[in-house]
Each structure stands twice: as C-alpha cells, then as structure tokens.
Amino acid sequence: MWNPGEVASSPSPSPAEAYAASLRRGKYPQLTRFAAEASFEFDDFQIRGCEALEGGHGVLVCAPTGAGKTVVGEFAVHLALAEGRKCFYTTPIKALSNQKYADLVARYGPDAVGLLTGDTSINGNAQVVVMTTEVLRNMLYAGSSTITDLGYVVMDEVHYLADRFRGAVWEEVILHLPEHVRVVGLSATVSNAEEFGEWLVEVRGDTTVVVDEHRPVPLWQHMLVGNRLLDLFAGEDTHAPGAELRINPTLLRRTEEVGRLHAPAGLRGPRGRRGAPPRMPRYRPPSRVDVVEQLDRAGLLPAIVFIFSRAGCDAAVGQCVRSGLRLNGPGEVEEIRRIIEERTSDLPEGDLGVLGYWEWREALERGIAGHHAGLLPAFKETVEELFVRGLVKVVFATETLALGINMPARTVVLERLVKYNGEAHVDLTPGEYTQLTGRAGRRGIDVEGHAVVAWQPGVDPKQVAGLASTRTYPLRSSFRPGYNMAVNLVAQVGAAEARELLEQSFAQFQADRSVVGTARRIERNKEALKGYAAAITGDFEEMLEYVELRAKISTREKALSRQNTAVRRAGTAESLEKLRKGDVIAVPAGRRAGLAVVVDPGLDPIREPRPVVVTEDRWSGPLSVADFPAPVEALGRIKLPKHIELRSPKTRRDIASTLRNAGISLPGRQKRRSGANEDGELAALRRALRAHPCHGLAEREANLRWVERYQRLAAETQQLERKVAATTHSLARAFDRILALLGERGYLGPESAGDGEDRVTEHGRRLTRLYSESDLLAAECIRHGVWRKLGPAELAAVVSTLVFEARRDTAGEPRLPGGAVPEAWQETVKLWVDLTEDERRHRLDRTREPDAGFAWPVYRWARGESLEKVLTAAEANGQELSAGDFVRWSRQVIDLLDQIRDVLGKADPVGAAAADAVKALRRGVVAAGAA
Questions:
Q1: pLDDT at 165 over 90
Q2: How many other CB atoms sit within 10 Å of the CB of residue 410?
Q3: Sign of CA dihedral 592, 593, 594, 598
Q4: Can you tell me the mean pLDDT for 653-666?
Q5: 60 falls in which pLDDT band (50, 70, 90)?
C-alpha cells in the first residue's frame, strides 16, 4: 500500500525502499499530492491506474463492486483541476450522478463542479461536470462548445455498454470523443477485460488495462433454511486463492430433510383420499420480520434485502412497521427527521398525503425503507443518504439498487433467484448475482460481508454455489446503429466515413473476433478439399459431372415415386367410394389378406372412405386406402341381411360362411407397373450415365467415395463462409439499410454536385436533435404536421405516447382526452404503422408501438389539476401509476417536449405549444429537486 501522507506511521523503510519511493514521488507528483489528501492507503490496482493516468495513458479499471475503482476516476478530476482543463464524469443513472455530484462538491466546492442530467442543470459550464452518459452523447452530436478544453472523461460503470436498451450510448461516446481526451473506464469485474482493453487501444490509442479480482472485504456466502442460517461452503479457507469450494454437507442434509417434509410454496399436496398418501404441509418461509430480527441478533445489519418486485418491497416495509419492529434509538430518530426535512422541503404540503409521506417517514424513523424505481426521486435520495449514514438499518430493494449507487451494507439477502426481466421470469445469471451480493461488506467498517440466499423447495444449494463461484462474466456489446445516430454521423462525417466509424465499434470488434476461428476452419477445409481432389484418379471435373448425373437420376426417381404414390392413392380412394354393401373384394396383403365382403361402405363427406368388412376368418373392421396398393374392384356380390349386428359372433360366423361358399376365388397376383419405366426424362438421364467416360472406370466406386466426402466438406465450407459474410461488416450493412429508409422518406438526399454521397435534408437536421427511442416517429409527426392543431396540454398527452411504456398489459383501452387529441393520436398511429411496414421491408428493428397509457394523467396535470386527482383518475381507469412513476414519465415527456421546442422554435405553433406544455408540467412534485 502506498500513501505518502502516512509515512510516519509505517515501519522505517530501508534506504533502497526510501530511494525508490522518492523516485516515484518525483515521477508522479500529482498522485503524491492526491494520495496525501486521502484518509486511507491506496491499493496496488488504484496506484497502477493513477500512475498510468498521470503518465498520459487512458485507463480501464476492472475491479469488484466496493473495491474503490472510483479513486482512479476522482484522480482524473484532480488532474483536470491541476492542469486547468475540464473533466466530465459520466454515469449510467441519474441517482449515481446526483451522488457523485454531492461527493465532488463536498471536496472541491460548488463553483468547481456542475451537474447535467435529463431534468437537472446546475453550473453546466464548470470545470468538472457530472452527467449521465446520454447528455455527453448529445453534446458530441450537437458540437457543443462545452467540450472545449475537455481533457478527461470518466465513464463510471462502463460495463453498462452491454445493456440492450442503452448500451450503444457508451460506444458512441468512446468513438466520438476527440483524440486528445483521455478516457477513464471504470468497470465491474468482467472476464474479457483484456479484449475490451484491446478495443480501447485500437480506437482511443494507448490505454492501460488494470484488473483486480480481489475483494477488499471478504464475502461469506450463506443460505437461510427455515430459521437456521447455514454457511454455503464448508471450511475456513474458502477465500484463499485457488481454494477448492466444497458445499457445506450440513446444509445439504438440512435442505434435503426440509424438502422431503414440505410441498413447494404455492403448491398443495393431494387431498386425503382412502389409500392416498397424506397431504404434505406447504412450506412457509420465515417472515420478513423474522429475517430482519434474526440478522439483527446475529449482528448482520445494516442489510439490503433484494425483492424483485416493487409491490413486494412496499409490502415488506408495511409488514415490518405493523409488527412494531424498531431498529433506531431516539437520537437517531431526531437526526432522521432533520435530514427528511432538508431533502423534502420542496414538496408541496398538499401532496404529502397522496405521496404516502407520513407512512414513509414513520418507516424511516424505525430504520426501515424501500427502494425501487416507483419511488419519488426525493424519497429515493433520502433513503440513500440515510442508509449511507447508518440511520436506515434495512432496505427492501429491487435490483436497480445494485447499479452503481454507493449503498454498501454488511449483509445482502436474496429472497429469490428468479426475477422478471420485463418479458419473462428468468434465473439470475452469475454476473447479476455477483453485482447484487457485491454490495455486502463496507470497506473500512466491516471485517467481512455476508450474502444470504433464502431457501425454499426447489432451490438447490448446488445452484447457489454455481452462482457464487462462477467467475466468467464476459462483456458483450449491444451497439447497433439507429436513426438519430445515422443522420448525425452523415451530417458530421458523411456516409463513407460513418461506415468506417461503425466498423471500429466494440460490437464489430467482437463480431470479427468471433469468426477468427471459423475463418481458420474454412482455410483448413479448403486444404482438405485439395487433398480429396488429388486422391481421385482420372479427371476430377468429369467425376463431378458423373456424380451430378447420379444425383439427378436419384432426384427424378424420388419425384416419380411420390407422383405415382399420389396418383395411386387417389385412384384407390375413388374405387373404395364405389363399393356397396355385399360387394366381395380381395384384400391383397397383411394380416387380413384374402376375400372380404363389404357390410358398410364407410363413406364420409370429408375424409377418405373406410369400408367395414367381414373376412373369411370372421374378422370384422374398417379398411383404409393404406390397405390397398392399387384400385379395388368388386369380384362379385353376396346377399346380406338388411340389419347386421357385427358385435354378434354368430352374425360374423354366418357371413364368413356365406362368403366361403359363394364360389368367388382370389384373382392372380398382378405385377405393379412403375411410371419410372415410361418416363422420358429419366430414361435420357440413364442413357447419359451409361455413356459417361467415368461409368466404365475400374476405380469408379472408390472415386465416388472421395467425391462424396469432397461434396460434404464443400457444403460445410460454403455454410461457414456465409456465416462469416453475415458477421463481418454487419453493422455497416445495417447502417446502409437505415440510410436507404431515411433516403426514401426525405431525411437524406444526394448532394447537388452529384458525388453520390448522402446529404442531410431540412427534415434530417431536425432528426439530428431528437434523442428518443421513437426518434424517427417523432420526426415524422412533426414533418406531417399531425400535432399542429394541439394546445399545450393536448400536445403533452400525444407526445407522451412516444415515451411511455406500460409495465404490463392493462385491461381495456386507455382513456384519451377529448378535443383534438383522438384525431392526432390516430394520425400518429397511422404514421407508426406506415413506418413499421418500411422497417419490415428494409429488415430493420421495428419502432415501438405508441402507448397511450399516460396520456390522460399527463393531460390533467398539464391542465393544472392536483396530484391526488391525477393519480386517483389514473387508478379509476385501471392504470398502475405510483407517484414516482408519474414524476419519472412526466420528466421524460418534458425532455421530448424540450427537444421539439428547440427543433421547431417558439415561432412555430407546435414549438410554442411544446414550450407552454413544459411550463405547465414543470411544477409541484415534478419540479421538486430539478433545477
């Protein structure tokens, strides 16, 4: 460990060590100053990252959650301030931006630090600005002057580029930043850090990769079985490097015992019937209150309990409060009240009741809180601050808490190992398990951290051990070009250079690497094909011709066989339809071969006929087309009773006797004729085969085996080559398909000089400034003027359909405001239908369907109604909308309205309506905490 500020407390160094330390301080003077201000010693990986940064390199730091990666990012801030340059500190989520902004303001003062998120702008021209990654991407595309003198960009949680919805933004930023800017990437531990680092070297120049897999606070893994907390792994040296992890045999025995005695939760055993096994009792896991009390008794608080459901988090808080659980003393309650007052002073007094403020506050005073995306931002931030200060002892949270927010705990509890990913319930991956449990163990506070998985029937300790011990979490790019990206690239560098830029993406880098092995296999196959060709005696091309002739003959024979079978079946079915009661027929083969008499023709208006017969040996039953290889002819007739009871053995015996005594004999066996002998094409092919030079070769069969091998390998090689062709340049091809669609719709057009290069039109320039998941649909609505008749509140309602996405399907159609809204909504949907047809034709991802689920609430809010009325009306319409969700969606609507206003200007009717809508929406809880 190296900390120049604490040399006095360290053992006296040897003269050689003192000299080396002196050289190091001289080589890295800024790191020496930075470390001297720290209150702890830096780890080796932190020192290596900082030294690389001061040495003029970019840096990628991969280390476990809680290891202290941000030290390297904060050193980039220190360097920028010392050099008089700017530093942008980017994060994936607003909560993390807010937290990092508060940390840097506490260290450097409010004048030196700014904050830019989608809904907050504080001191945006400061020397150090914290921002969400999308804000920086938008700055780069807009050519913002704020980027002047930018020296460093810290990309916290850079592994977020694997996110399938937003990950592309990280790559866009890395590719578009000016060359002189040094990038500091901070990532969770991923197994392909070196691959990611190699890509950064390729696109950003010299980049040092620093990987550290050591957790500063050891993590102990447990399972909670009933009320017993058992270690997952046996032995004392489970944290030693290379230690063999062995599942605790006591845990295995206990889970097996409990599993035998209980039915899984939610399932019932069979009801007690005579002779049936007794009904098994349903397994009831310990209540959340019991879990918290047990953790408290064991000294394992503070804890984060991950429940993958918002409703589950709220219910857990309610259960703890109702039980009377209290984890705080009087002094802590006073401190909590003070912080709550500071954090929530912006909230309107009249909205506190509908926000559930008093219930939320009571839970906090008891040391209990929930944390999920449906909470009001002010509530979430308060919970985060109180937890960091140790004033909240247990937080029931969804997985969003694991995304970078600095809220470490002593213990992390997982109620389940299954979560809903927005589309289906899926098992946690090892990477997600590590991300969640990585919150356990507070550096400098806890000697060890604890991860607890609640057992229930169906959960195998081996499954948990697999999650806890897996160390392979590869980072996979989710980058793909979109409409806004494409039109911005063309505007900035032209289509040709844009393709080259896309070829430099991490996604293409990984795709190209993925086919390296395939390309080598293709080369090996081609060498083998040469060997096969050389092994054939005689002319290789003639042998291929001969094999081709044989293949054609085989194909023709099969076709004729199928054709003959179909014709024969149709003829047989037609002949069966002509049979009548009393007709004697011959069954040609099978167990029923011989004479039979028809007792029921078995005619059916839909299906083929299935005549019921009685044979000479008294068998009775239906026959089908499959029993006759050729059409059937009646050999004669016998008289039968009018009513026949076939279930009677006597009746069947009498009919069989009559049949045998009728004097009708079986016809002679007829040779089946094959259509192949009469086919001219087949006959010509056979003549050509016999006349071929290879037909008489002595080594013909040996050569044929070599040719068959050659053809199989050639087919495999062609398939591999198609795979490589589909993978390489795949992003550039997708980009070209986007350009083709944009060109058709008038967003791109050829330059008048006629150089064939796409150029951005007036509509395209508007699209460059629309950053939304439905960017092109928004541009189409503006272009076609479908929103021109809307007032501010009406425009907010219709624009909301482009950003809102219901969490789950709701019954019935969402309610729409009256007036001009329904017509504008219908026109918007028509444009979407038209757009998706074009996307299907160009083989592009479809634009998400507009969702009107938020139109009614946002319309009423824009009209000035109270929060209580808005949320009550939403509930009455069957919509699940928490106060936090309402604020979040309102701010996203404001963000898109802001963009529309900037694109069109206030002189345009739609631009003016957008500006007025923003003013109407930005009030009360929606405006609270946003500058």
A1: no
A2: 23
A3: positive
A4: 87
A5: very high
Structure-token match 């040092």, residue found: 208
Q: What is the dihedral of CA 753, 756, 762, 766, to 10 degrees?
A: -140
Secondary structure letter of residue 669 according to DSSP = P
Model confidence pLDDT, tens digit, residues 395-417: 998 876 655 566 778 899 998 88
Question: DSSP letter string over 98-120?
Answer: HHHHHHHHHHH-TTTEEEE-SS-
- How far CA 548 is from CA of 127, 331, 554, 595, 685, in Å, comes to 74, 92, 10, 48, 11
Return the amino acid letter for 304: I
Backbone angles phi, psi at 594, to 5 degrees: 130, -165
- Angstrom distance (rounded) from CA 632 to CA 636: 12
**Between the CA of residue 348 and those of 487, 891, 928, what are the distances in Å?**
43, 17, 9
Q: Give the residue among 910, 902, 896, 777 at the shortest CA–CA distance from 839.
A: 777
Q: Which of 426, 409, 404, 407 is nearest to 417 (CA)?
A: 426
Instruction: Please state the separation of Cα 877 from the chain's center in Å.
Output: 31
- Could you give phi then psi for residue 209, rounded to 5 degrees? -100, 120
Owner of token pair 């500020």: 5
| Residues of the chain by 3-state class (helix, strand, coil), percent to 5 | 50, 10, 35
Checking 759-768 for CB contacts under 8 A at 24+ apart, the result is 759/490, 760/487, 760/490, 760/491, 764/487, 764/490, 764/491, 765/491, 766/903, 766/904, 767/483, 767/484, 767/487, 767/742, 768/141, 768/484, 768/487, 768/488, 768/491
User: What's the pTM?
Assistant: 0.71
Distances (CA, A) of 213 to 69, 157, 472: 12, 16, 12
527: alpha, beta or left, given left = phi > 0 and alpha = psi -120 to 50?
alpha
Joined together, the tokens standing for residue 501 give: 């830029």
Pairing of strands 394-397, 303-306: parallel
CB atoms within 10 A of CB 864: 10
In three-state secondary structure terms, 925 is helix
Separation of alpha carbons 886 and 858, rounded Å: 8
How far apart, in whole angstroms, are the C-alpha atoms of residue 815 and residue 770? 27
* R_g of the chain, CA atoms, integer Å: 38
For residue 703, count other CB atoms closer than 10 A to its CB: 21
Contact 502, 731 (CB under 8 A): yes
Could you give the CA distance from residue 744 to residue 755 in angstroms, rounded to a whole number?
Answer: 18
- The 10 Å Cβ neighbour count of residue 131 is 28
Distance CA 526, CA 53 (A): 47
What's the pLDDT tens digit per position in 13-32? 566 655 555 656 667 888 88
Which of these, 165, 410, 381, lies nearest to 301 by C-alpha position? 410
Dihedrals φ, ψ of 631, to 5°?
-55, 150
User: Are 54 and 25 contacting, i.e. CB atoms less than 8 angstroms apart?
Assistant: no
End-to-end CA distance of the chain: 42
